[in-house]
Every structure is written in structure tokens, then in C-alpha cells.
Amino acid sequence: MQQLSIPIPPVFKQKFNGKPFSHCLVCEKELIASGAHYLIEKAVRRYKDYNSEDIVFEYAICTDCHQHMLVHYSQESLEAMRAFFAEHVDFKLRQETMREMAEKEAFNTGDWIRNCLVRGTPVENLEEYQMGCECIGDRMIISSMPYIIGGPAIDELTMQLSNETIDQMRGLMDKFLGLPPDLRKLLNDSGILIL
Ligand SMILES: [Zn+2]
After folding, report:
1. Burial profile 162-190: b = 16 or more Cβ within 10 angstroms, e = fewer
2. What per-residue confidence (pLDDT) applies to 48?
3. pTM
4. How many Å lie between the centroid of ligand 1 and the Cα of residue 155?
5. Which tens digits make up the pLDDT trace of 15-34?
6. How far is the CA of 31 from the centre of ligand 1 (A)?
7. Residue 41 C-alpha to ligand 1 middle, in angstroms?
8. Which of 43, 61, 130, 168 is deepest in the core (most CB within 10 A)?
9. Which residues of 128-144 are buried (b: 16+ CB within 10 A; e: fewer)?
10. Ligand 1 center to residue 70 CA distance, Å?
11. 37 C-alpha vs ligand 1 centroid, how far in Å?
């Protein structure tokens, strides 16, 4: 199947300078010129009363490093994650619809990051959410991503994970993101990152 892609939209560029992410957070390899396969992940805190947002963190991670992280999670947790998404999300339909739009050159990233992937909650009604997309070089590819997941859905998913996996996730976040506890608390109850 042909890989459909579009230029990386502004929402998935770096907040502070508007430029594309250029290096993997973990192995620091160059991503754009090398045509690397990578994910972009952001966690957002939203202040409803002020209609404003803070990016808690944002980064790109190459798929090799991402796979390597998953190895640290328990089999039960990985299976629980798969089951959780299989129960709540029709990825096949979602991807087919996105591809159809892209083929008609009518794909609009905003349409796919407007509601929580799991619960459908509009982003305006979320106090926090995580968003992600998948890229190759300077292009965002149409895959199961892009999407956003709201705080309540993240908490629901977290409850399915083993304590060991949650500890692993926290450890990896501390190591690579260097999040101070105050900032991590902004994320969600358990302070973990899902994507
Ligand atoms: Zn990497």
C-alpha cells in the first residue's frame, strides 16, 4: 500500500521556534535529512477558563528507540494496551477515512486532533491531553496517527497497566525528559506518557 503523507503541519513542529524536530530525543540521530522514521509526541495542559494552553513537553523519538522502550514494558501491560485500544478505537476505519481524504487532497490535520481518540471528548473540554503523529523525514505519514488522547482516557488506560510498567515509564521519562515532579504532576494522576 502506498504511503500517503503530507508536509509536517505547524501543530507538530516545535512550539518555541516553529521549526521541525530535527533529532531523536534518545539517540540524538538526525531525522529530517536522513529520512528517518520517527514519532512526535507532545503533552498539553489546557486552561479552559483562559482558553490557553501550555506544552508540558514535546519531542521526537525515532522508531528504533521507541521499539526499544516498549521492550521494557511487561507483556501483560502491552497486551492490556492493545486490548484497550482495540475495544475503543476502530483504527482501520479511521485510517481508511484519513487515506480517502488525503487522496482527495482534502486531509486536514485539525480534524483528527479535535477529539479524544478513545472517548471522543472535544479538545476544548480537556484539561490535559497527549498528541502524537508519525513522520518520515520532513513528511507526516497517514497511519493510525495523528491523534490526541485526553487525560481521562490516559488515566483509564493507566489503570490497566502493571506497576512495573508504570515505574518503567516514569523512569524513562525522568531519564530523557528530565521532568521535575511539579511538571510531571501536570500530566495526569499517574504522571505517565502513553504514546
Ligand atoms: Zn533514536
Report:
1. eeebbebbbebbeebbebeeebbebbbee
2. 80
3. 0.89
4. 27
5. 989 999 999 999 999 999 99
6. 9
7. 13
8. 43
9. bbbbbbbbbbebbbbbe
10. 13
11. 9
| 115-169 pLDDT tens trace | 999 999 999 999 999 999 999 999 999 998 999 999 999 989 988 888 888 888 8
Q: How far apart are CA 177 and CA 89, in angstroms?
A: 29
* DSSP reduced 3-state for 145: coil
Distance 93 CA to ligand 1 centre (A): 30
Coil, strand, or helix at residue 24? coil
Arithmetic mean of pLDDT, 73-84: 90
- Amino acid at site 24: C
The environment of the single-atom ion ligand 1, i.e. residues with CB closer than 5 A, is 24, 26-27, 62, 65
Q: At what angle do helices 151-158 and 75-88 cross, to 10 degrees?
A: 140
